[in-house]
Amino acid sequence: MTSYRYPGEQIILALTLFLVLAVIAVTAVATLCGSALFVMVMLVVSFVLNRSHHNELIESAHPVTPQTEPALANLVGDCAARLQAGPVGTFVAPGNILNAYTFGLVKPQILVVYAGVFRIMDADELRFIIGHELGHVSLGHTWLNSLVGGMAGIPSPYLAAVVLYFAFRWWNRSCEYSADRAGLLACGKPEKAASALIKLAGGASALRSAQGWQQALHQIEAEDDHLENNLRAMLSTHPMTVRRLDALRRYAASPEYHRLQDQINHVHPI
Ligand SMILES: [Zn+2]
Predict the structure, then answer these.
(1) From the CA of 1, how far away is ligand 1's center (Å)?
(2) Distance, CA 90 to ligand 1 centroid (Å)?
């Protein structure tokens, strides 16, 4: 009862399906080639930006060497040895900013610590901060961030671009938890890792008095009580301090941390 079918209907259907598949294949290949090209462009842009950043830094920052800053060079070398981070170039940048960062696509990567950090941190807290940054270097976050971070900008439909943005931020925050663990392993003192994070969040006012310290603690503890803060945290490269402190506390209580810390202390005692 189907012999009345118009001749060629099925062939036309087969041809149509073939064309649909061909269009999908061509689009996929074009997207793949476009994305590969984008990654290559990002790589070149990263190299150029890194080089210009490095040149700017050399003009404004102070290089740390065993001759210019023996104590700091020794501390960085010690932390690098404990974390097996390999050689890094260290610079102290002027300014009261409470921050440190690393950059560079190839070894030796560059560690930059702002002068403000030295004004408020003691030697153990400094070990945590430098260890945190060296953790980013050892775990490959420094070069990955330049390269993979750029990939978040791959031209994509609006919703996909939002998904990529959130995914990369999520990865950024997970890197921070890993780097905090490295900082703890470098300094070996959970209470100093915690006080360094509290000082970074509370700033100079946390140090002025016992009351200032309590106020900073109170603010940190209340951070995740508000929905607005929780939403903002999803867009941030860094987790909230309260979560970093909790994560560090849990890691410091784990057998895994004690095993690794004992191993590091045995080879490179502080
Ligand atoms: Zn970090």
Answers:
(1) 73
(2) 16
